[in-house]
Amino acid sequence: MATSHFIDLDGPVHYVDHGGSGQPMVLVHGLGGSYLNWMLIGPLLAADHRVLAVDVAGFGLTPPAGRGTTVAANRDLLDDFCRAVAPDGPVILVGNSMGGLIVMMEAAANPERVAATVLIDPALPMADLHTMNRFTFQRLVVPMVPGVGEAAMRLYFATTTPEEQVEETLRTITADPSVVPAEARAASVELQRLRRGMEWSVSAFLAAARSTGIAISRRSAFRAMIHRISAPTLVIHGSQDKIVSPGSARWLVAQRPDWELRIFSGLGHVPMIERPEGVAETMRRWLATTDSSAPAAVTTMAAERLRHH
Questions:
Q1: Strands of 260-264's sheet, edge to edge?
Q2: For the chain, how many structural domains are there in total?
Q3: Which single residue of 62, 201, 284, 300 has CA 20 to 30 Å from 160?
Q4: Distance CA 36, CA 30 (A)
């Protein structure tokens, strides 16, 4: 049974423990997301691992509390969290969207603490500018304009209800919103209602959005970062993702052909919500083929790439 906890890491950090007794697996949500993004798949993954879904600073129930909410700051927070919950060994990191970017940053910076990574529709450089939709534009481009992003966000909160916000988000991040169970919708609406009363929610979101946009726009730096990752990596991507195109996922594995790519037909940006059983089984089968009991050794191919970057 999932249980909610707070841990003090220079301020409160909220996480949900989905149970399990195997190797620790830490789940990291995306921009605007929370621990709720993992509520359907967490119990399935706990059959083989101890599964923890963390809220990074500025999202879910984790306040900034004086900490930054950029992807770099939350990479530091993730590292502190992993040290605290798994002091004796490496963890498996799983990230969706912005969380996938944070996971890659952590795996590149601290390979000794990462046994394997699973990237689910991670934030990536765009393969084609024409793939950017209105939702992505609003969340990554508008925040870049000084003053405009905050005004737009506050107007959005003032003119829409939590129910409307959740429904609009689901229409964008899923290929078919009807597959999302009623209990997941209700939990998302309740959390959105709570966040409307958190004075830091808008500024935290904008800082995270700006830093995500900057990170994926610097293609050369991004490429250098992924070549520093030694952990075996599985990339899962929805074929109907409207936010990060499948073309971007193919670009990613073209840079790292030792990584595995699984495209899920008919799914959007959050396959772990849309088809939790299928995603969990794919992860389970892939992890069974990797040695995730210790930090991954750098493969010959990865080592060769490191020498050239």
A1: 3-8, 12-17, 50-54, 24-28, 91-97, 114-122, 233-238, 260-264
A2: 1
A3: 62
A4: 11
Q: What is the pTM of this model?
A: 0.90
Residue 244 contacts residue 122 (beta carbons within 8 Å) = yes
Q: What are phi and psi of 160, to 5 degrees?
A: -135, 150
- Lookup: tokens for 167: 């429904």
How many C-beta atoms surround the C-beta of residue 29 within 10 A? 25
pLDDT of the chain, 309 residues: tens digit per residue: 799 999 999 999 999 999 998 899 999 999 999 999 999 999 999 999 999 999 999 999 999 999 999 999 999 999 999 999 999 889 999 999 999 999 999 999 999 999 999 999 999 998 765 555 555 555 556 656 666 767 877 888 889 999 999 999 999 999 999 999 999 999 999 999 999 889 999 999 999 999 999 999 999 999 999 999 999 999 999 999 999 999 999 999 999 999 999 999 999 999 999 999 999 999 999 999 986 655 544 433 333 433 333
Structure tokens given for 30:
């995306």
Give the structural domain span for 149: 3-307
Q: What is the CATH number of the domain that holds 196?
A: 3.40.50.1820
Residue 223, amino acid = R
